[in-house]
Design goal:
The protein has 221 residues and is α+β, with helices and mostly antiparallel strands. The protein contains five helices and twelve strands. It is globular and about 55 Å long.
Length: 221
């Protein structure tokens, strides 16, 4: 049951932020401009910018600030700059020509130094209930920060990814937490965007074990 498709990441983020129990799991997100980028990269040390439409890791860039040095990383190439203005100009040339959002950077749990995140896919059945189709981990290719399989990421079961990247006591609870969060988000999105039939949730878990919702897709790959 394919249903309605909604490509705009910003609209889905706004809907989820309206719920008090889900909002703390969403990284701070802003529309892209120089002022917001500078403020957020100083606040968090690292942010990710991504096109407001699109997927597969296309056009996603990590921007960092550390002890007076600004840098950005696109795929495996990192460029460093002595001031924000020079970096922002170079970033304008590196971006794909689309509207972007800025998202608070999260230091993900890792396996062998490689970051891992999770994709949870659900689909609506004819009777109106939702069924879980997949719950998997995506381990970044060595040298990359994006985990997308089309960029060389490795597919693991969620159970294996959690057990290899977190302490065993923490890992056992996270799968259930992700399911509970998914169920809450389904209700919010179904009420905000009637007609949706498929959802793909991209989750990250940081070094402290907190679950973050990076984005929700209505046409998950």
């Amino acid at each position: 049951m394919a249903g309605r498709q909604l490509a705009n990441k910003w609209l889905k983020t706004e809907a989820l932020l309206s719920n008090g129990s889900v909002a703390p799991h969403i990284p701070q997100t802003r529309m892209y401009d120089a002022e917001q980028l500078k403020r957020m990269v100083h606040q968090f040390g690292m942010v990710v910018i991504k096109p407001i439409h699109g997927g597969g890791g296309y056009g996603v860039i990590k921007v960092s600030y550390d002890r007076g040095v600004y840098s950005f990383t696109y795929m495996s190439r990192r460029r460093a700059f002595g001031n924000f203005e020079t970096m922002f100009k170079a970033l304008g040339r590196a971006k794909v020509g689309r509207k972007y959002i800025i998202q608070q950077g999260i230091h993900l749990a890792r396996i062998g130094g490689r970051p891992i995140d999770y994709r949870v896919k659900v689909a609506k059945q004819q009777d109106g209930s939702w069924m879980y189709r997949a719950m998997v981990g995506r381990l970044a290719r060595p040298g990359l920060f994006v985990t997308n399989l089309c960029k060389g990421g490795t597919l693991l079961s969620a159970r294996e990814g959690l057990s290899r990247s977190l302490r065993s006591k923490v890992a056992r609870t996270k799968r259930r937490e992700m399911r509970n969060l998914t169920n809450t988000c389904i209700g919010i999105l179904e009420s905000s965007f009637p007609g949706i039939g498929e959802l793909g949730f991209d989750y990250g878990i940081d070094n402290g074990g907190k679950i973050w919702i990076f984005e929700v897709n209505t046409r998950p790959q």
